[in-house]
Amino acid sequence: MGEEAQLSDKDTKATMGIEDTPGGKVRPDSQNLRPSVFHSIKFFLLCHSLLQLVQLMISGYLKSSISTVEKRFGLSSQTSGLLVAFNEVGNTALIVFVSYFGSRVHRPRLIGCGAILVALGALLMSLPHFISEPYHYDRTSPVDTPQDFKASLCLPTTSVLASALSNSSCSSYTEAQHLALVGIMFTAQTLLGVGGVPIQPFGISYIDDFAHDSNSPLYLGILFAVTMMGPGMAYGLGGFILRLYVDIDRMPEGGISLTSKDPRWVGAWWLGFLISAGAMALAATPYFFFPRKMPKEKNELHFRRRVLAIISKKKDSPSEQSPREFPEKKDGLARVAPDLTVIQFIKVFPRVLLRTLRHPIFLLVVLSQVCMSSMAAGMATFLPKFLERQFSITASYANMLIGCFSAPSAIAGIILGGVLVKRLHLCPMRCSALCLLGMLFCLLLSLPLFFMGCPTHQIAGIIHQPGTRRGLELFPGCMEPCSCPSDDFNPVCDPSTHVEYLTPCHAGCTNRVVQEALDKSQVFYTNCSCVAGGGPVQAGSCDSACSHLVLPFMFLVCLGVVMACVTHTPSFMLILRGVKKEDKTLAVGIQFMLLRVLAWMPSPVIHGSAIDTTCVHWAQTCGRRAVCRYYDHDLLRNRFVGLQFFFKTGSLACFALVLAILRQQDKEEGTKVTCSGLQQQLLASGPEKKPEESTV
Fold first, then answer.
1. In 3-state terms, what secondary structure has residue 513?
2. Does residue 27 carry a pLDDT above 70?
3. Looking at the structure, do residues 412 and 376 belong to the same domain, yes or no?
4. Within-domain flag for 159
5. What residue numbers bound the domain in which 430 lies?
6. Do 553 and 536 fall into the same domain?
7. What is the pLDDT of residue 151?
8. Inter-residue contact 568 to 413 (CB < 8 Å)
9. Report for 65-69, 223-227, 452-456, 535-539: range of highest mean pLDDT
10. Fewer beta carbons below 10 Å: N end or C end of the chain?
11. Secondary structure class of 170 (helix, strand, coil)
């Protein structure tokens, strides 16, 4: 045991170069020391699993708090979608060169530097909170008085007070300051994308290089399983953080009269980025102590050896051939790239890209994954806001629903798809059939979603429901003596008619009454000239009569997510079997690049633009259109679910074409497709290339 420890330590120093002390000198007693924990691939696996978990938690946290950021900084859904997409801009611009650098660099240190950039990006993302003014949910109120006290009442001095405060607000919070805050967030998102470039590719290749050939698939499976919990944890963190008030670190002296159910409520969105940045900095620290190269793992895991022994007793296991397959995976561009300069790599990349895209199976499967990724990107970004608006629930509750149900459903679907491919020994044609069935069921499950939703609130002066009494038309001119400010927002509800007013001033109310209860206080407004009987009207938006439908809605969404994620593993197998062996490494890289460029970047912007078209009342800030106050719920549901339905249909059509092409190739070959033998040759398309060109 001692000799093996000394030999492994020597091997490590030989591969690393002497890096123990500055100047390259080794202490005389260094050979008697045990190998460091940083020379263990298992410890690297643990560190990298935690690092990727935190990285996905940071990228998913913004999606969980997107509606809160919109309200806080007056952003439209299109702008917030563009903000989310900027995470992919820096990532896409640099990801191609990762395949070139490969093992030329010190991969652990580069991963650590990328993680530090991600932590700095998360810190920068929270900076707008600290350099901006405190959040005033009622802009017509003086700063030195409680914000909600007599601020929105119908008083003769309201117009003078409102105009003075509006001018002071516009002078202190100028358009340049607003653009600076938004620019900081866009810069932070770009930095998050750039920092995440080396984390996954270099981590996977490092594990695959120094793990035992039999253990590498298991280690990568553990890595992906732990990583997939990141988005769920992000939504869970958002559900907890958004219950706290945004200015929890600088609360006004008189306190606030808002609850999390108030539409003006803004949660402490910035706190999640601070927590995530600290976790990322801690997770990045060990990477600066890992060696550039470590001794390859020599022993197979004991429990894996037992499992293989049991399988070999039942039948001849093909796992004996797997060790011979691993040395072959450095074919193609991955094998040639270290011999190319940067200029040669840039010149040869488009040629290999075009040759890969000529494979019909590869192209169709990638297009199908583009449609599914577009659906997933839009849902991950705006589903919390959709639930919040459609069913009148709080942002924290919407995030908790998604974190507890949608994210685990995606994990379950991917695992189920992998189990089906493994247990049923699916050939390419059956893989495409499984993908087709999965998307078909996903499409059918989305049909009832068009009819599950809440009707739009009746808003006095904005939205009128047919067959109901018009709020302000019953009392024409009731608001004239009030001179209500146009940019004020303090909704009140008439419980008798279920009509909502923008402010108590818009309802003509002149008095405010607070009823104290044991657990909370309730605010009412009386003497309302625009309300039948003079009121009273209740502070806050009108309650929705169909909020209970959110659970059946989420149940169908989760079932659809399971069916869509079942196609993940079989579609990935179609890509690996649909290209030449020497192009597999680059094909996977091209796949992820196309998914970023065609799906993850444009999809949030497309969904945000579609959501903006359903807005019926925009808030105005200093003459600029800010956040949307009210949406047409029917239009919102039809366009959001309709976009999801469109992308699911596109994915289904692509898988149908894949199945048709495989059947046509089967007929042309004149052979019967089986699940063993030379199936991969059926997927290869195009004339054979010369060996030299094929290698490149």
1. strand
2. no
3. yes
4. no
5. 350-455+547-665
6. no
7. 58
8. yes
9. 65-69
10. N
11. helix
